[in-house]
Automatic annotation (TrEMBL), chain A:
One of its GO terms (molecular function) is ATP binding. Residues 8-247 form the ABC transporter domain. The gene is urtD. Keywords: ATP-binding, Cell membrane, Membrane, Nucleotide-binding, Transport. This is Urea ABC transporter ATP-binding protein UrtD. CDD domains: ABC_Mj1267_LivG_branched (cd03219). The keyword Transport applies. The keyword Membrane applies. PROSITE patterns: ABC_TRANSPORTER_2. It holds the Pfam family ABC_tran.
From TrEMBL, chain B:
The gene is urtC. It is a multi-pass membrane protein. InterPro entries: ABC_transp_permease, ABC_transptr_urea_perm_UrtC, LivM-like. The chain crosses the membrane at residues 20-40, 52-78, 127-150, 157-180, 206-235, 256-281, 293-317, 329-353. The keyword Transmembrane helix applies. This is Urea ABC transporter permease subunit UrtC. Keywords: Cell membrane, Membrane, Transmembrane, Transmembrane helix.
């Protein structure tokens, strides 16, 4: 458990739900500016890994170090504040607020009760909202109630809400689920742009999409790592082929 | 810019429509009612308006925060009792009470064989302390309940039920501790405040106006909270609590704060009740009054501050009229009213008003953005709990459990169908 140069060092991570090990002795390291994709069949434990990192689920054993800080002992909001952002599998936005308000409310100032009561919309906030809106291709929709966005646009909005916080580590759970082919391409571009100065973990099923974005791929199966490495290498791995075709 | 334009442009007041709504309410409370009815009725309206403090707090807590407390009577009662203790002590000077076996203590203590003033009554000899107590003790109590529940992530239906249980326990405690609290009769025969007779007509007028001003204070404070980032976060939390938590906010602190604020407002209402009505009793603390207050808010429109005030006035007017003619029917009527509101007008009076104002283009307002809160599905759930409680009560009254259960079922179904995407009203 020594210090490392990795942004994220997951070591011997285990969680068991009533004896069922959803994540089993997992070790994984994420580099600075790396875009890692987690793949694996349904129920492999991918979402659970993100839950463990962001504190939604408490681990049974092992350690998660983010910039050499142990995350397993922090509460959810402390983990976020230390620089970890997480997008949920189902788009999770505030439907009754406008796109602008969704982004503004995610701005990382005025996070306490009294801070939020005295929070002022400064030029800085305004600029940040517009910059992110441009990134996620929603500039024209800023004043629209976000419930009216398309499914794909909702996914982008949630990514935008995370970008407002400028996280060092961004974790996206199936960000292109329910998107059209064109939207998938746009999302691939978006991810390639936003991983310039941060590390990103993406969970994805669509192999075509994975090829476009992944620096490295980790294949999970029954809570364990089956294979890890560049896309071509993993795709040629016999164990991986067996899991994917054998099921 | 003229003052009018400035007011209309202000986000705080909610644009032109918001300013007009406030102006009309002010005219009704400060001019129309005092000029239109005699002092007996005005005093009655003043009493209703003390419940409006609770309803306004519920707009913040429930309408915007999605947290349904079925125990706001706790805080109304604590505020009311704090004020009553002060007034009771003033009414119990040794000369007036010289026929008692222990002169100088409240009459009910004497009847209960107490021979000295209990220690926790001592500070209520001071008016500044009493005012301080009205503002802080209920809020502190709310903090303790809120901390214990929200930090453990107890929410939704469980929160509602626990607040209800606390209201019940408190009212039982007050009734049981007769020597300290006056028991089931409450604290009666309150007369003066620092020598000023609160029972005269002129005092009643003054208290009515003071109450109105304080109510406007509560409304403005709520408007400020709603227009701040805090207000936006409340709506966000109601919709997607996890998203807020995983955006770096400690959600429980926000819930605790809004619960305390709503409690504090209720307490001010309670204290004004005691002053205007001249007594305080446990019948304003328990489950029934707490639920009634939720109904006032629902009828007015739980997302609308001004709607909550009208809702309170209207339901209480109905209660006065009906309970005079058909007292035994009132509970059923109120239950029916609540079910009707849930099924057909989830945004209450304010929602209906909003719909027609928009339809006919009254008070067209460019400044109003898409900020209006929507009735969320969590709201539907909470409606269902309430309906359940109400029909359970009706069932207890008639012992026809199956009828109540079927009403409950259909209501829940209908509520689920009719609620999504109905735009809220903030008028
Ligand atoms: N909180 C929980 N309690 C019990 N079982 C869980 C919990 N969370 C996940 N699981 C189980 O863990 C396994 C992995 O789930 P998940 O991480 O969601 O898989 P996926 O790789 O499809 O995202 C599944 O079998 C799921 O049922
Ligand atoms: Mg998953």
């Amino acid at each position: 458990m020594s210090n490392t140069d990795f942004v994220l060092a997951v070591e011997d991570l285990t969680v068991s739900f009533d004896g069922f090990k959803a994540v089993d002795n997992l070790t994984m390291y994420i580099d600075k500016n790396e875009l890692r994709v987690l793949v694996g069949p349904n129920g492999a434990g991918k979402t659970t890994v993100l839950d463990l990192i962001c504190g939604k689920t408490k681990s049974t054993g092992g350690s998660i170090k983010f910039n050499n800080t142990e995350l397993t002992k922090l509460s959810e909001h402390e983990i976020v504040r230390s620089g970890v952002g997480r997008k949920f599998q189902n788009p999770s936005i505030y439907e009754n607020l406008t796109v602008y308000q969704n982004l503004e409310v995610s701005y990382p100032k005025g996070r306490g009760v009294f801070g939020s009561l005295t929070f002022k919309r400064t030029q800085e906030v305004e600029d940040q909202v517009r910059r992110v809106a441009a990134d996620i291709m929603l500039t024209e929709f800023l004043d629209m109630e976000s419930a009216l966005l398309s499914h794909g646009q909702k996914q982008w909005l949630e990514i935008g809400m995370l970008l407002m916080q400028e996280p060092e580590l961004l974790m996206l759970d199936e960000p292109v689920a329910g998107m059209s082919a064109k939207e998938r391409d746009q999302t691939a571009d978006l991810l390639n742009r936003i991983c310039q100065n941060r590390s990103v973990i993406v969970i994805e099923h669509d192999m075509e999409f994975v090829k476009k974005i992944a620096h490295k791929v980790t294949v999970l199966h029954q809570g364990k790592i089956l294979a890890e490495g560049p896309m071509e290498k993993v795709q040629a791995d016999e164990k991986v082929i067996e899991v994917y075709l054998g099921h | 810019m003229t003052l009018w334009e400035k007011m209309c442009a202000s986000d705080l007041l909610g644009g032109k429509q918001g300013v007009i709504g406030l102006a009309v309410l002010a005219a009704v409370i400060f001019l129309v009612l005092p000029l239109g009815v005699d002092i007996f009725r005005l005093n009655l309206i003043g009493k209703y308006l003390t419940y409006a403090f609770v309803a306004v707090g519920l707009v913040l807590l429930w309408g915007h925060g999605g947290i349904l407390s079925l125990g706001q009577g706790i805080f109304f009662g604590l505020g009311g009792y704090a004020m009553a203790m002060f007034l009771k002590l003033e009414a119990s000077d040794p000369i007036t009470t010289k026929i008692q076996s222990t002169p100088g203590i409240p009459d009910f203590m004497d009847w209960n064989q107490l021979t000295a003033l209990p220690w926790f009554w001592e500070p209520f000899k001071s008016l500044p302390f009493t005012i301080f107590a009205v503002l802080t003790i209920p809020a502190l109590f709310a903090y303790i309940i809120g901390y214990a529940m929200f930090k453990r992530r107890v929410g939704g239906v469980y929160f509602s039920i626990i607040t209800q249980a606390v209201a019940l326990i408190l009212s039982i405690l007050i009734v049981g501790q007769q020597g300290y609290t006056g028991g089931v009769n409450g604290m009666t025969d309150l007369r003066t405040m620092l020598g000023w007779d609160i029972r005269t007509d002129s005092a009643k007028y003054i208290l009515y106006y003071a109450n109105g001003l304080l109510l406007f204070g509560a409304i403005f404070l709520s408007k400020y909270v709603m227009s701040s980032k805090f207000g936006m976060l409340l709506l966000a939390m109601r919709d997607k609590e996890e998203r807020v938590r995983f955006s770096g906010y400690d959600v429980s602190n926000f819930k605790i704060f809004i619960f305390c604020l709503a409690a504090m407002m209720s307490a001010v209402g309670g204290a004004m009740f005691t002053l205007q009505v001249g007594f305080m009793s446990p019948s304003f603390v328990g489950i029934v009054p707490s639920i009634e207050m939720v109904i006032f808010c629902a009828v007015g429109g739980r997302a609308s501050l001004i709607g909550a005030v009208y809702g309170t006035l209207l339901v209480n007017y109905g209660k006065t009229v009906f309970s005079e003619t058909y007292p035994e029917l009132w509970l059923f009527l109120m239950g029916g009213l609540f079910i009707a509101v849930v099924m057909f007008f989830p945004n209450g009076i304010a929602g209906i008003w909003d719909k027609y104002a928009t339809k006919y283009g009254w008070f067209k307002d460019k400044a109003v953005t898409a900020k209006k809160p929507e009735v969320s599905t969590t709201g539907v759930e909470t409606h269902a709990v309430l309906t359940e409680t109400l029909s359970a009560e009706a069932a207890a009254a008639t012992e026809s459990t199956d009828v109540a259960a079927s009403v409950k079922k259909t209501t829940r179904k209908k509520a689920a169908i009719s609620s999504p995407n109905i735009r809220g009203a903030e008028a």
